[in-house]
Amino acid sequence: MEVSIIIPVYNRATVVPATLDSVVAQTYRPLQVVLVDNYSTDDTLQVLENFKKEHPSLDVVITREEHHTAGAARNRGFELATGEWVLFFDSDDLMDEDLVASYVKIIEKAKKKGRELDLISAKSTLVFPDGSRRPAPFHKRDLFANHILHGQLATQRYAVRREFFASTDGWNINLPGWNDWELGMRLLLEAPCVAYMGGASHVTINHNGADSITGTEFHSRQGQWEHVIDIIKGEVMCSRLKSQHKRRFVRLLEYRRLVLAAQYEREGCPELAKPLCREAYGKLQESYQNSRRWRWLVGPVTRRLFARIAAGKRGSARIARLLY
Asked: Is pLDDT above 90 for 131?
């Protein structure tokens, strides 16, 4: 079974070699590597071409995509992917040498039991600007909620069956941020057969300052994040989910709006934080119809959660998952 790894690259000449080394180190074959240059202005394309020349035994495909979003580049890469299963990966992250082999082991085990998987969620480790590391949240239950709260289906954190992914609309090329969060929700709304990779983390995700695709702050792109939240809310409301599930997931999305407001507050932008906090709080209050539960429990706790997040304290998502 062939597996395709799709990596979009833009101006990453000094960073992408480490990612490519981790791909070459994979113990599993056959492996296709699709590299999509987003019309870089540095030496990235030359680095990719050198990589292909240095590894003739590896099926390396290099292409270019002029639309300057990672989503467009990933869609372009998917068009050229031939593997039965696909991994999307970022150009500044690393995969352990047994990542693909571990995915394939899970797929083959499921096939022996008569199950055809669509999606496999894997553990990952986050690296921060101060050099600290911590496991990314990973849960085998309540995947919808945990993706809303923690982005469990972020770009590097899953493998997807090619035919299943092809049945969706792919990456939204018009979203400059949080496009993997939005895509993950759409994948879940298609009711995939999901498995989980246990054991240790197999992926290292770089949140390390200027070298990170993710970035380190939110206020400079104010409005973009809120737009993605609204898009996902619309997708949830138009889905085939039961009404009680829709109601819960919309509340969790409003909590994510509250988290964003708290992030603005932490970044020293109260002029952005306060109106967004009021908006999220008001929509949550409306969803509870200003009931006694809201007035005496949910509302007060929601205000405290905002204060906790703005102060940089962790653990609020666990409370939110139960509260809403």
From this structure: no
SS3 86: strand
Could you give the CA distance from residue 188 to residue 147 in angstroms, rounded to a whole number?
9
Of 211, 229, 250, which closes a domain? 211
Residue 220 pLDDT grade (very low, low, confident, very high; cuts 50, 70, 90): very high
Radius of gyration of the chain (CA): 20
CA atoms within 13 A on the CB side of 85: 25
Percentage of the chain exceeding pLDDT 70: 97
CATH number at residue 53: 3.90.550.10
Phi, psi (deg, nearest 5) at residue 67:
-70, 120
Residue 213 contacts residue 70 (beta carbons within 8 Å): yes
| Contacts of residue 112, Cβ cutoff 8 Å, sequence gap at least 6 | none
Domain that holds residue 285: 219-323
Domain count, the chain: 2
- Opening angle at CA 309, ends 230 and 131, nearest 5: 105
Token reading at 28: 């599993």
Same domain membership, residue 148 and residue 228: no
CB atoms within 10 A of CB 73: 29
Q: Write down which residue in 180, 211, 242 finishes a domain.
A: 211
Q: Answer yes or no: do 32 and 168 share one domain.
A: yes
User: Is residue 139 located within the same domain as residue 196?
Assistant: yes
Question: Is the separation of the CB atoms in 224 and 210 below 8 Å?
Answer: no
Q: What is the pLDDT of residues 289-298, one digit of tens each?
A: 999 999 999 9
Chain mean position to CA 49: 28
The end-to-end CA distance of the chain, in Å, is 42
Q: Are residues 87 and 223 in the same domain?
A: no
CA distance 89 to 7: 5
Residue 189 shares a structural domain with residue 239: no
Whole-angstrom Cα distance, residue 218 to residue 288? 29
- What is the reported pTM? 0.94
Position 112 scores a pLDDT of 97
From CA 170, how far away is CA 135, in angstroms rounded?
A: 28
